[in-house]
Structure formats: C-alpha cells, structure tokens
C-alpha cells in the first residue's frame, strides 16, 4: 500500500512539474510576444542572427550574411531595422544572381546589397506609417549602405522602393529582436 501511495505521489508531482514547465514556456512566449517567421518563433530576447538562423524562409539571407562576413555586426548591440527578403524573394532574381554574388570575389557587392536592407535604429511599422503620413505619402530613410530607401503605403500595407524602382511589400512587420527589429519583405532591394 505504501508503495502505491509513493508511486501515485511521484506521478502527481511529475505531472505537476511537467505541466508547470509547459505553462512557464507558454507564459514566456506570451511575455516575449513572439512572432512566427518561417515556421520558427522569433524571440525578442534573442538577436537578429540568433532568430534568423531558425527561419526556414530566410536560409538564403542567412547564407548571404555569413558569406559577406556580417554575422558579428548583426549580433552586435545595434539597434538595426532589417528588411529581410525571403527565399522566394531571392528566387525572383535573374537565374544565377544569388550564386554569383555569393562567390568570395563578389563579397563587396554582396555586402553592399545586404547593408542596403538595413536602416540604423529600431523602426516599428507604426512609426513608418506615421512618418509616411507626415511626408505626404512617402518617407525616405538612409540605409547602412549609404543610399536611400523610400517607404509608402497602399491601404494598410507598407511598401519599400529601392533606387532602381524595385518594390517590396512588408509581409510580416515588427519582428522584435534584442538588437533591433525585422520586417520581412517579398522582394530583394538593389542599391
């Protein structure tokens, strides 16, 4: 009989602890206001690189960041606002473009393209929308690369245009990071 009581008590304690751990994880996710990107939770307590490597939709971007030697930069304090093209966005580029820019001899070009997707500071979609309204329908921001991006809205959606006239839609906004914010876009921007 004592054995049965001990086993039942141990089972109850295990279930309570297990359930408690599950609640703690759920509470942490709710507290952190995670956003799902590429099938993975993006945690505001992790930096841009720590989150991006988990997104199945950003494997090309992560490979490009590694090839350009920008991992340390995007792990640093920042803050940065990153307009992150998806794998589908990279696939829209002319055939062979990605393979060409990933070659070591094209590192400067790759770095230029990637830093063109980064604006200094932490800029939320709400701030972008307010600045667009203040700017009579557009807002221009200087990128880390040195050239401008132009932001505008169509309905409630935010769009960004590069210097060549390419247009990208922000498909997932406000993916907060410990060192900035990511806005997922559907087109690669070109300086």
Automatic annotation (TrEMBL):
Gene3D superfamilies, sorted: FAS1 domain (2.30.180.10)
One Pfam family of this chain: Fasciclin
Keywords linked to the UniProt accession: Signal
Keyword Signal attributed: yes
A cellular component annotation (GO) from this entry: extracellular space
Signal peptide positions (record): 1-25
Domain FAS1: 45-189
Protein name: Uncaracterized surface protein containing fasciclin (FAS1) repeats
């Amino acid at each position: 009989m004592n054995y049965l009581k001990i086993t039942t008590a141990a089972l109850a304690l295990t279930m309570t602890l297990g359930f408690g751990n599950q609640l703690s994880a759920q509470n942490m996710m709710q507290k952190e206001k995670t956003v799902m990107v590429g099938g993975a939770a993006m945690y505001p307590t992790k930096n841009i690189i720590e989150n991006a490597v988990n997104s199945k939709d950003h494997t090309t971007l992560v490979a490009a960041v590694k090839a350009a030697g920008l991992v340390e930069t995007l792990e640093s304090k920042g803050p940065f606002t990153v307009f992150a093209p998806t794998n589908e966005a990279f696939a829209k580029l002319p055939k062979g473009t990605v393979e060409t820019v990933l070659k070591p001899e094209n590192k400067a070009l790759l770095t230029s393209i990637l830093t063109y997707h980064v604006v200094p500071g932490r800029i939320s979609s709400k701030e972008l929308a307010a600045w667009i309204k203040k700017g009579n329908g557009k807002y221009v921001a200087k990128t880390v690369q040195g050239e401008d991006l132009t932001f505008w809205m169509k309905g409630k959606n935010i769009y960004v245009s590069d210097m060549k006239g390419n247009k990208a839609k922000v498909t997932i906004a406000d993916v907060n990071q410990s060192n900035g914010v990511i806005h997922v876009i559907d087109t690669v921007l070109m300086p």
